[in-house]
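Can anyone check this?
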Amino acid sequence: MNTLDRFAAAEWVKSSYSQGTGGECVEFSRTFASAGVVPVRDSKQSDVPALDFPLAGWASFVAAVRRGELPS
């Protein structure tokens, strides 16, 4: 099964850090969090497979972004 099929039921949320001007637009889905996976994709290329991250890794990444520890 490819990742397009695997995440077909995903409900996507656009990151609040996305510019919305046609540039960097990242979407993620909480749909599979109970299975320990957070898929992430480029909203401009929804036909390309999503990357899937372990829930703990995604949570650490989001926390680091919120603390301003990553370059923009």
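Reply from J.R.: I decoded it. The chain has a mean pLDDT of 83.
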